[in-house]
Specification:
Blueprint: H1 13-27, H2 38-49, H3 60-72, H4 78-104, E1 117-120, H5 127-135, E2 143-144, H6 145-149, H7 157-161, H8 169-183, H9 187-190, E3 198-199, H10 202-205, H11 212-215, H12 221-229, H13 233-250, E4 259-261, H14 269-275, E5 280-285, H15 288-306, H16 312-334, E6 342-346, H17 347-352, H18 354-364, H19 373-386, E7 391-393, H20 402-408, H21 410-416, E8 428-430
Helix pairs in contact: 1-4, 2-4, 3-12, 5-19, 13-14, 15-16
Pfam family, one: Sulfotransfer_3
GO molecular function, one term: transferase activity
Keywords: Transferase
Length: 438
């Protein structure tokens, strides 16, 4: 499990054991073979729920492209295709249950989703930290980790609202997180969380079988190209409806603006603004050495779980390309966004003076920050317990150099005056109460 500054970590022995057991179970006929076939997956989800309406049919096209890429490009191991079956089944069941709830409670779709505050930044640029600081303020709505894992309540949820049953979703989230830590013990270093911690809405975009989450766990280059060329507006519309459902399940006022964030927004700002035209945007910026190295590390640590053929250098090149595309798309989209609708926040500024930086953010939002300060201080204390081990990575682990990153990202660095660290060639350690968050 050790890691040098030039060698990426190996996967946990748990995955090798699981892979062996699944293969043995299939050989003995006790574990069903993987069937990553669209018709089978749709029918299986319908049989489990007794429902047939999957909602907006837009998802079929990315689903087709993703399944083809998973089958032809991802080179999944037995643990990988087993987990893929579970994943697709969950997404499809959630779509069926969402439509069931919308029909049962039409008022859900009438809920307002006005003036969301959307944090937009490259992966690993401090978006999680800023998101959780703002989510500490009860004047905003936010998702929690268990809602990202299970955004759609079960059909007995009205009994939960009546106080007759416990919501099973947080219990399930604890189990999922426990397995995730066995599969990848570095999970808490890369992205510390807990069932009730504020979490991003990426799970709502993947409900349309769309987004970078799939690229960060599977080698699916043809799917990546499809997503990069697609108009994601339908996925964002579906995400908005999922937010309405979650707000209803939280029994929160629809007048409270949502705090949103996921790196996917860097690629899809036009789609986001088509659906949320009054969004207020907070852009985060960080040294691209850190962004690219950490993004590659995150993708590596996911991909090695599901495939025996992960290539560290290929992952490094891909996430350098992807990070560059994110900042290019973001800079182009900003040209048509009014200046009073956006603000820029440097990762290093939050490191040096979180309170002063947040005061500037609150001035932008036209809100008094003082009522939120106790919650923010509580979060910063809690963050120390969430992350006990630093996230270590380096560009060299993924066949990259600082000079290569600087050359590729030079326009972005210059435009936003991003502070740069002197390259050392040593493994980068992200630690500390503030640095603990991505």
């Amino acid at each position: 499990m050790g890691t040098s500054s030039t060698t990426p970590p190996r996967r946990a022995p748990f995955i090798d054991i699981a892979d062996t057991l699944i293969r043995a179970g299939r050989a003995l006929g006790r574990v069903r073979p993987a069937r990553l076939e669209k018709r089978y997956l749709l029918d299986h989800a319908s049989e489990q729920t007794g429902l047939e309406d999957f909602g907006d049919p837009w998802f079929h096209e990315p689903f087709d492209v993703l399944l083809k890429a998973v089958n032809e490009e991802a080179q999944l191991n037995a643990a990988g295709d087993f987990s893929a079956m579970l994943y697709f089944n969950q997404v499809l069941m959630h779509r069926l249950l969402s439509e069931w709830w919308f029909k049962r409670h039409p008022e859900i779709l009438e809920r307002s989703v006005k003036r969301p505050v959307v944090i937009v930044g490259p992966m690993r640029s401090g978006t999680t930290r800023l998101h959780r600081l703002l989510a500490s303020d009860r004047r905003f709505s936010h998702m929690r980790s268990f809602e990202t894992i299970s955004p759609v309540p079960r059909q007995d949820f009205e009994q939960v609202l009546a106080g007759e049953k416990e919501d099973f979703r947080p219990v399930l989230a604890k189990r999922v997180m426990r397995v995730a830590r066995l599969a990848n013990p570095r999970t808490l270093s890369i992205h510390p969380t807990g069932p009730y911690e504020p979490e991003e809405e990426l799970g709502l975009l993947v409900a349309s079988l769309y987004g970078m989450k799939h690229e960060a766990q599977w080698h699916v280059p043809s799917y990546a190209k499809w997503c990069e060329a697609a108009d994601a507006t339908p996925a964002y519309r579906y995400m908005a409806d999922q937010l309405r459902l979650i707000g209803w399940s939280q029994q929160e006022s629809s007048l409270r603006p949502w705090i949103l964030k996921t790196p996917q927004h860097m690629l899809d700002l036009p789609a986001l603004l088509n659906v949320f035209p009054d969004a207020r945007l907070i852009f985060t910026h960080r040294d691209p050495q850190q962004v690219v190295g950490s993004a590659a590390s995150l993708a590596w640590n996911q991909t090695i779980i599901y495939s025996d053929h992960a290539d560290a250098n290929a992952i490094g090149r891909e996430w350098l390309r992807k990070s560059h595309l994110q900042v290019e798309r973001m800079m182009a989209a900003r040209e048509s966004i009014p200046a009073d609708r956006m603000i820029d926040v440097q990762y290093d500024d939050v490191e040096r003076d979180w309170r002063g930086t947040m005061e500037r953010v609150y001035d932008f939002l036209d809100l008094d920050m003082e009522p939120a300060v106790p919650g923010m201080e509580d979060y910063l204390e809690r963050a120390k317990d969430l992350k006990r081990h630093p996230h270590k990575y380096s560009l060299e682990m993924f066949g990259l150099t600082a000079a290569e990153v600087h050359e590729r990202m030079g326009d972005y660095i210059a435009r936003f005056d991003v502070p740069m660290e002197r390259p050392t060639g040593q493994a980068i350690t992200t630690a500390g109460a503030l640095s603990a968050q991505s």
